[in-house]
Amino acid sequence: MQFTKMHGAGNDYVYIDARAKDMDWPALSVAMSNRHRGIGSDGLILAQESDQADLRMSMYNADGSEGKMCGNGIRCLVAFAMKNGIVPAASSTVTVETLSGDLTVTPTVEEGRVTRAIVGMGAPRFAVDQVPVIAPGHDTLVDYPLSVGGDIFSISCVSMGNPHAVAFINTPVDEVPLHELGPKVEHNPMFPERVNFEVVNILDRSHVKVRVWERGSGLTMACGTGACAVVAVGHQNGLLDDDVTVSLPGGELQVRWPGTGEVILEGPVEEVFEGDWPA
Protein backbone atom coordinates (compact mmCIF):
# COMPACT_ATOMS: atom_id res chain seq x y z
CA MET A 1 0.00 0.00 0.00
CA GLN A 2 1.46 3.33 -1.06
CA PHE A 3 1.76 6.01 1.62
CA THR A 4 3.31 9.43 2.14
CA LYS A 5 4.62 10.72 5.44
CA MET A 6 4.12 14.47 5.98
CA HIS A 7 4.22 16.95 8.82
CA GLY A 8 3.04 20.43 9.70
CA ALA A 9 5.41 22.03 12.22
CA GLY A 10 6.50 18.57 13.35
CA ASN A 11 2.97 17.19 13.81
CA ASP A 12 3.45 14.16 11.55
CA TYR A 13 0.97 11.83 9.89
CA VAL A 14 0.92 9.02 7.37
CA TYR A 15 -1.30 9.74 4.34
CA ILE A 16 -3.09 7.19 2.16
CA ASP A 17 -5.33 7.55 -0.88
CA ALA A 18 -8.17 5.51 0.59
CA ARG A 19 -10.67 5.94 -2.22
CA ALA A 20 -12.35 2.59 -2.94
CA LYS A 21 -10.34 0.99 -0.12
CA ASP A 22 -11.79 -0.71 2.94
CA MET A 23 -9.45 -1.78 5.72
CA ASP A 24 -9.19 -1.94 9.48
CA TRP A 25 -7.98 1.65 9.62
CA PRO A 26 -7.69 1.87 13.44
CA ALA A 27 -5.41 -1.18 13.53
CA LEU A 28 -3.40 0.13 10.60
CA SER A 29 -2.95 3.47 12.34
CA VAL A 30 -1.59 1.75 15.44
CA ALA A 31 0.86 -0.29 13.37
CA MET A 32 2.03 2.53 11.12
CA SER A 33 2.30 5.10 13.91
CA ASN A 34 4.61 2.98 16.06
CA ARG A 35 7.93 4.83 16.15
CA HIS A 36 9.98 1.67 16.72
CA ARG A 37 8.18 -1.01 14.70
CA GLY A 38 6.32 1.07 12.13
CA ILE A 39 6.74 4.28 10.14
CA GLY A 40 6.42 6.54 13.15
CA SER A 41 3.74 9.24 13.30
CA ASP A 42 1.07 10.92 15.37
CA GLY A 43 -1.55 9.03 13.38
CA LEU A 44 -3.05 8.13 10.02
CA ILE A 45 -4.98 10.43 7.65
CA LEU A 46 -7.04 9.17 4.74
CA ALA A 47 -8.07 10.94 1.54
CA GLN A 48 -11.56 9.75 0.66
CA GLU A 49 -14.33 10.70 -1.73
CA SER A 50 -16.97 13.18 -0.60
CA ASP A 51 -20.47 13.93 -1.86
CA GLN A 52 -20.41 17.45 -0.42
CA ALA A 53 -16.82 18.69 -0.67
CA ASP A 54 -13.73 18.28 -2.85
CA LEU A 55 -12.56 15.42 -0.64
CA ARG A 56 -13.14 13.86 2.74
CA MET A 57 -10.61 13.57 5.56
CA SER A 58 -10.71 10.67 7.99
CA MET A 59 -8.08 10.63 10.73
CA TYR A 60 -6.98 8.11 13.32
CA ASN A 61 -4.74 8.84 16.25
CA ALA A 62 -1.69 6.79 17.12
CA ASP A 63 -3.76 4.70 19.53
CA GLY A 64 -6.30 3.87 16.82
CA SER A 65 -9.05 6.17 18.09
CA GLU A 66 -10.78 8.27 15.45
CA GLY A 67 -10.28 12.03 15.59
CA LYS A 68 -12.69 14.64 14.34
CA MET A 69 -10.26 17.31 13.20
CA CYS A 70 -6.56 18.14 12.84
CA GLY A 71 -5.41 21.60 11.80
CA ASN A 72 -1.90 20.53 10.81
CA GLY A 73 -3.13 17.32 9.22
CA ILE A 74 -5.71 18.97 6.98
CA ARG A 75 -3.11 21.31 5.44
CA CYS A 76 -0.89 18.36 4.55
CA LEU A 77 -3.88 16.39 3.27
CA VAL A 78 -4.65 19.07 0.69
CA ALA A 79 -1.03 19.07 -0.47
CA PHE A 80 -1.14 15.27 -0.70
CA ALA A 81 -4.41 15.38 -2.66
CA MET A 82 -3.12 18.01 -5.09
CA LYS A 83 0.12 16.11 -5.74
CA ASN A 84 -1.66 12.79 -6.32
CA GLY A 85 -4.45 14.06 -8.57
CA ILE A 86 -7.22 13.56 -6.02
CA VAL A 87 -8.08 17.23 -6.51
CA PRO A 88 -6.80 19.44 -9.35
CA ALA A 89 -3.18 20.49 -8.91
CA ALA A 90 -4.10 24.07 -9.80
CA SER A 91 -6.75 24.39 -7.06
CA SER A 92 -6.74 27.81 -5.40
CA THR A 93 -9.02 26.55 -2.60
CA VAL A 94 -10.03 23.07 -1.53
CA THR A 95 -13.06 22.18 0.58
CA VAL A 96 -12.59 19.23 2.92
CA GLU A 97 -15.35 17.26 4.62
CA THR A 98 -14.44 16.39 8.22
CA LEU A 99 -16.34 15.07 11.22
CA SER A 100 -16.30 18.69 12.43
CA GLY A 101 -17.89 20.04 9.25
CA ASP A 102 -16.69 21.22 5.86
CA LEU A 103 -13.56 23.40 6.02
CA THR A 104 -11.86 25.48 3.34
CA VAL A 105 -8.10 25.26 2.78
CA THR A 106 -6.13 27.81 0.74
CA PRO A 107 -2.74 26.38 -0.31
CA THR A 108 0.41 28.34 -1.12
CA VAL A 109 2.32 26.81 -4.04
CA GLU A 110 6.01 27.54 -4.55
CA GLU A 111 8.07 25.94 -7.31
CA GLY A 112 5.35 23.41 -8.01
CA ARG A 113 4.68 22.22 -4.46
CA VAL A 114 2.50 23.28 -1.57
CA THR A 115 4.67 24.83 1.15
CA ARG A 116 2.04 26.46 3.38
CA ALA A 117 -1.72 26.62 3.71
CA ILE A 118 -4.43 28.65 5.40
CA VAL A 119 -7.42 26.89 6.96
CA GLY A 120 -10.74 28.31 8.08
CA MET A 121 -11.14 26.26 11.25
CA GLY A 122 -14.70 27.17 12.15
CA ALA A 123 -15.89 29.08 15.19
CA PRO A 124 -14.75 28.14 18.69
CA ARG A 125 -17.43 26.72 20.97
CA PHE A 126 -17.20 27.52 24.64
CA ALA A 127 -20.45 26.02 25.99
CA VAL A 128 -19.71 23.11 28.30
CA ASP A 129 -22.11 20.78 26.48
CA GLN A 130 -20.39 21.50 23.18
CA VAL A 131 -16.81 20.95 24.38
CA PRO A 132 -17.95 18.59 26.04
CA VAL A 133 -17.04 18.88 29.69
CA ILE A 134 -19.01 17.85 32.76
CA ALA A 135 -19.18 20.94 34.98
CA PRO A 136 -22.47 21.23 36.90
CA GLY A 137 -23.47 24.85 37.46
CA HIS A 138 -21.28 26.19 34.65
CA ASP A 139 -22.34 27.36 31.19
CA THR A 140 -18.71 27.80 30.19
CA LEU A 141 -15.52 26.80 31.96
CA VAL A 142 -13.05 29.64 32.52
CA ASP A 143 -10.08 29.53 34.92
CA TYR A 144 -11.44 26.42 36.57
CA PRO A 145 -9.07 25.00 39.22
CA LEU A 146 -8.15 21.47 38.18
CA SER A 147 -5.99 19.38 40.50
CA VAL A 148 -3.47 17.31 38.55
CA GLY A 149 -0.68 15.31 40.17
CA GLY A 150 -0.53 17.57 43.21
CA ASP A 151 -0.57 20.78 41.15
CA ILE A 152 -3.48 23.12 40.44
CA PHE A 153 -3.98 24.32 36.86
CA SER A 154 -6.53 27.01 36.00
CA ILE A 155 -8.08 25.58 32.85
CA SER A 156 -10.43 27.11 30.31
CA CYS A 157 -12.24 24.80 27.92
CA VAL A 158 -13.18 25.17 24.26
CA SER A 159 -14.02 22.98 21.29
CA MET A 160 -12.27 23.51 17.97
CA GLY A 161 -14.06 20.50 16.53
CA ASN A 162 -12.34 18.54 19.28
CA PRO A 163 -12.14 19.26 23.04
CA HIS A 164 -9.37 21.34 24.60
CA ALA A 165 -8.38 22.34 28.13
CA VAL A 166 -6.04 25.37 28.08
CA ALA A 167 -3.90 26.48 31.01
CA PHE A 168 -2.00 29.78 30.98
CA ILE A 169 0.88 29.40 33.43
CA ASN A 170 3.88 31.34 34.73
CA THR A 171 6.15 28.30 35.03
CA PRO A 172 8.11 27.81 31.78
CA VAL A 173 6.19 25.27 29.71
CA ASP A 174 9.41 23.32 29.10
CA GLU A 175 9.59 22.58 32.83
CA VAL A 176 6.09 21.07 33.04
CA PRO A 177 6.23 17.22 33.21
CA LEU A 178 3.56 16.98 30.55
CA HIS A 179 4.36 13.31 29.87
CA GLU A 180 3.10 12.61 33.40
CA LEU A 181 0.33 15.18 33.74
CA GLY A 182 -1.07 14.97 30.22
CA PRO A 183 -2.57 11.47 30.55
CA LYS A 184 -4.19 12.43 33.85
CA VAL A 185 -5.91 15.43 32.29
CA GLU A 186 -6.84 13.53 29.11
CA HIS A 187 -8.59 10.79 31.06
CA ASN A 188 -10.13 12.95 33.79
CA PRO A 189 -13.79 11.89 34.21
CA MET A 190 -14.96 15.46 33.64
CA PHE A 191 -14.07 15.01 29.96
CA PRO A 192 -16.41 12.32 28.57
CA GLU A 193 -14.66 12.30 25.18
CA ARG A 194 -11.20 12.80 26.70
CA VAL A 195 -9.41 16.08 26.03
CA ASN A 196 -6.34 17.78 24.55
CA PHE A 197 -4.31 19.65 27.17
CA GLU A 198 -2.31 22.82 26.39
CA VAL A 199 0.08 24.61 28.74
CA VAL A 200 0.86 28.17 27.66
CA ASN A 201 3.35 30.95 28.40
CA ILE A 202 2.33 34.41 27.20
CA LEU A 203 5.43 36.10 25.80
CA ASP A 204 3.40 39.16 24.80
CA ARG A 205 -0.12 39.81 23.52
CA SER A 206 0.78 38.57 20.04
CA HIS A 207 3.13 35.70 20.87
CA VAL A 208 2.70 32.57 23.00
CA LYS A 209 4.77 29.48 23.69
CA VAL A 210 2.80 26.25 23.91
CA ARG A 211 3.22 22.55 24.59
CA VAL A 212 0.44 20.07 23.92
CA TRP A 213 -0.66 16.67 25.11
CA GLU A 214 -2.99 15.32 22.41
CA ARG A 215 -5.66 12.80 23.24
CA GLY A 216 -4.89 9.53 21.53
CA SER A 217 -1.36 10.54 20.48
CA GLY A 218 0.39 11.91 23.56
CA LEU A 219 3.10 14.56 23.37
CA THR A 220 3.22 16.05 19.89
CA MET A 221 5.53 18.60 18.29
CA ALA A 222 2.59 20.80 17.32
CA CYS A 223 -1.21 20.85 17.32
CA GLY A 224 -3.20 23.05 14.95
CA THR A 225 -6.51 22.84 16.77
CA GLY A 226 -4.58 23.34 20.01
CA ALA A 227 -3.00 26.54 18.70
CA CYS A 228 -6.46 27.78 17.71
CA ALA A 229 -7.88 26.82 21.10
CA VAL A 230 -5.13 28.75 22.90
CA VAL A 231 -5.75 31.91 20.89
CA ALA A 232 -9.54 31.65 21.19
CA VAL A 233 -9.35 31.24 24.98
CA GLY A 234 -6.67 33.91 25.33
CA HIS A 235 -8.62 36.41 23.27
CA GLN A 236 -11.89 35.59 25.05
CA ASN A 237 -10.19 36.13 28.41
CA GLY A 238 -8.67 39.47 27.33
CA LEU A 239 -5.09 38.18 27.29
CA LEU A 240 -4.27 38.09 23.57
CA ASP A 241 -4.72 40.22 20.45
CA ASP A 242 -6.42 39.19 17.19
CA ASP A 243 -3.24 37.94 15.46
CA VAL A 244 -0.97 35.63 17.41
CA THR A 245 2.19 33.67 16.68
CA VAL A 246 2.04 30.30 18.42
CA SER A 247 5.48 28.79 19.04
CA LEU A 248 5.46 25.02 19.54
CA PRO A 249 8.33 22.53 19.82
CA GLY A 250 8.06 21.75 16.09
CA GLY A 251 7.74 25.28 14.74
CA GLU A 252 5.43 28.27 14.53
CA LEU A 253 1.78 28.61 13.53
CA GLN A 254 -0.10 31.83 12.86
CA VAL A 255 -3.60 32.16 14.26
CA ARG A 256 -6.13 34.94 13.77
CA TRP A 257 -9.40 35.35 15.66
CA PRO A 258 -11.01 38.78 16.20
CA GLY A 259 -13.48 37.47 18.76
CA THR A 260 -16.27 36.42 16.40
CA GLY A 261 -16.59 34.09 13.42
CA GLU A 262 -14.17 31.37 12.50
CA VAL A 263 -10.56 30.99 13.58
CA ILE A 264 -7.98 31.23 10.79
CA LEU A 265 -4.91 29.00 11.01
CA GLU A 266 -1.81 29.27 8.82
CA GLY A 267 1.23 27.02 8.88
CA PRO A 268 3.83 25.05 6.94
CA VAL A 269 3.47 21.85 4.93
CA GLU A 270 6.34 19.39 4.55
CA GLU A 271 6.61 16.03 2.81
CA VAL A 272 9.08 13.66 4.50
CA PHE A 273 9.09 10.56 2.28
CA GLU A 274 6.97 8.10 0.33
CA GLY A 275 6.91 4.34 0.73
CA ASP A 276 5.09 1.05 0.30
CA TRP A 277 3.54 -0.58 3.38
CA PRO A 278 3.29 -4.38 3.07
CA ALA A 279 -0.25 -5.76 3.11
Which helices and strands appear, and what pairs or packs with what?
Layout (H helix, E strand, L loop, with lengths): L1 E7 L2 E7 L7 H9 L9 E6 L6 E7 L4 E2 L3 H13 L10 E5 L2 E10 L2 E8 L23 E5 L2 E9 L3 E6 L9 H9 L9 E9 L2 E8 L3 E3 L3 H13 L6 E6 L2 E6 L7 E5 L1 E7 L3
Parallel strand pairs: 2-3, 4-6, 11-12, 13-15
Antiparallel strand pairs: 1-2, 1-18, 3-4, 4-5, 6-7, 7-8, 8-17, 9-10, 10-11, 12-13, 13-14, 15-16, 16-17
Question: What's a quick, concise take on this entry?
Answer:
With 279 residues, the chain is α+β, with helices and mostly antiparallel strands. It has helices at 25-33, 71-83, 178-186, 224-236; strands at residues 2-8, 11-17, 43-48, 55-61, 66-67, 94-98, 101-110, 113-120, 144-148, 151-159, 163-168, 196-204, 207-214, 218-220, 243-248, 251-256, 264-268, 270-276. The protein has an 18-stranded mixed β-sheet that branches.
CATH class of the largest domain: Alpha Beta
**Computed Rg:** 18 Å
- Counting copies of identical and different chains, the oligomeric state is single chain
Count, helices: 4
Q: What is the H-and-E element order?
A: EEHEEEHEEEEEEHEEEHEEEE
Structural class: alpha+beta
Terminal-residue CA separation? 7 Å
Number of strands: 18
Helix content: 10-25%
Proportion of residues in extended strands = 35-45%
CATH superfamily of the largest domain: Diaminopimelate Epimerase, Chain A, domain 1
Coarse morphology: globular
